[in-house]
Design goal:
4% strand, Recoverin, domain 1, two-stranded antiparallel sheet, elongated, mainly alpha, 56% helix
């Protein structure tokens, strides 16, 4: 994995074996940060382009988790320094991707995504954001995701709370694709009870 050379030779690191120094990491931050000393959405798009990763790639969520970023699309200097120095980002993108193979890390990233993507004025994720984040995280690992996404599209729900969010992951990991081991008397949120009922009626039609 190589980084593109920046127009300012000292602004961004290029590939090599040298570890990130705090000074280089700070210079890299200022190459992207705006006047408010925050790396915002447009700057993050440039950052993604420079490291050769699509902004919608789940790697960016894993990176944000490492940075302990509090808001989607925005990174403070403290978050940047903490995470980038820790990761020494050069040649680490494959490592970020491989981390998702660890079920405990995957669960932590998934749970982190709720607060990361949530409007801080709200206790729940709005449904459009929830669907986008679920697609990013679960679309390639949960066979029932396309059906669940269809259910959300036609449901009455306008958002998803933290309990529902956490339980969707647990459901995806423990419930068979044919729903044969789903316990209707279990402690699942009503959202998932309704999904199971909808899926069964949908399959029967």
């Amino acid at each position: 994995m190589e980084f593109h050379q920046a127009s300012d030779p000292g602004a961004r690191p290029v590939s090599g074996d040298k570890l990130f120094s705090n000074k280089k990491c700070l210079a890299w931050f200022h190459a992207y940060a705006g006047p408010d000393k925050v790396v915002g959405p447009e700057a993050m798009e440039r950052f993604c382009e420079d490291i050769g990763v699509e902004p919608e790639n789940i790697i960016m969520l894993v990176l944000a988790w490492h940075l302990e970023a509090s808001s989607m699309g925005f990174f403070t200097k403290e978050e940047w320094l903490r995470g980038m120095t820790l990761l020494q980002l050069q040649n680490k993108l494959d490592y970020l991707r491989s981390e998702l193979n660890d079920s405990a890390v995957f669960k932590n990233v998934y749970r982190y995504a709720f607060d990361f993507a949530r409007d801080k004025d709200q206790r729940s994720l709005d449904m459009d954001t929830a669907k986008s984040m679920l697609s990013l995280i679960l679309a390639t690992t949960w066979p029932l995701f396309p059906v669940f996404s269809q259910f959300l599209e036609q449901s009455k729900y306008k958002g998803m709370n933290k309990d529902q969010w956490y339980n969707v992951l647990e459901f995806s990991r423990t419930i068979n694709t044919d729903l044969s081991n789903y316990d209707e008397d279990g402690a699942w949120p009503v959202l998932l009870d309704e999904f199971v009922e909808w899926k069964k009626s949908w399959s029967a039609s």
